[in-house]
Amino acid sequence: MKIELNKVTKRxxxxxxxxxxxxxxYEQFDSxxxxxxxxxxxVIFKFKLC
Length: 50
What we know:
Layout: H1 19-26, E1 33-37, E2 42-46
Antiparallel strand pairs: 1-2
C-alpha cells in the first residue's frame, strides 16, 4: 500500500515511489543540516539542491 510521503511514520518500500516523487519530497529539506550522533562519532551532512 503506497502512502503519501509527507504522511509516512514508519519504514516504506522505496520501490513504491518514482524518482520524481522522491525528488519533490526531498526538496523540503534544501539547505537543512543533518547531524547523526553516535557514542563515538558524528556524521554531518547538508541537503543542497543542484
